[in-house]
Amino acid sequence: MKINKVVIATLISAVASSAFAADDFNTVVEASHSNRKETSLKLNQSFWGVDASLERVFRDGLGKELNIEVGYPAEIKPGFSITPQVEFTHPDGYVKDSVKPFDLGNTWKFGIQTDLEITSRWNVMFRYRFETAKHGGFTDYDFGGFKDSSGDIRQNTHRLELGTGYEIVDDLELSVKYIGRIYRFDEKNSDNEIKGHNGDWEFKAAYSIGDFTPYAQYTIKNSDHLKSDMGRLNLANENEFKVGLSYSF
Description:
Blueprint: H1 2-19, E1 25-34, E2 38-47, E3 50-59, E4 62-71, E5 74-77, E6 80-91, E7 107-117, E8 122-135, E9 153-169, E10 172-187, E11 193-207, E12 212-221, E13 224-228, E14 231-235, E15 240-248
């Protein structure tokens, strides 16, 4: 019995040591702040071939949302990988702005991402993601016949991302990404619906200093183009400038 206990303890120790080896376990912590008064704190973990992240977002000093994401990268060949992903977003209470003036609900996001290293300095990526959420009723909003609606609102979004990055000199990478969205709001027990689309251009510069990577990012946010039986409406969005810092260990 004593020998068996020693053997079992040795095996557990060996498995634990292997599982948490430096090559299998990586952590990245990141903090950022933008001109939209949003602050983000993010923890990324890579272990046993799985990528997971936990992000807390604050706006105007108050909690905005919590994001949890899990992905499983599969290397098809050296320099080319495909990653299925799932993300869950839990908002904090009531949010009212020009695009979503209602009681926000939880959002599930299911995506697939491909990454390709064309050269040691040049990479490209593509991601498709389907997002679905059920929100509370609209309030004080008269576009599309949704004014003072008490029914649940279902939002479905198709999101496409296409980006590329290039390391122009050692440790300095410049990247650009296009993010397009096509979405629809449907009211429960009603024919009311709003369809919309928008697209953003994201420009980023990141410089690695050992385990630290400071970065600056500027996003051109195009207008939301909305359409319903009541007509059409374009809603302008504020461009975003963000600075951040990540640390890996």
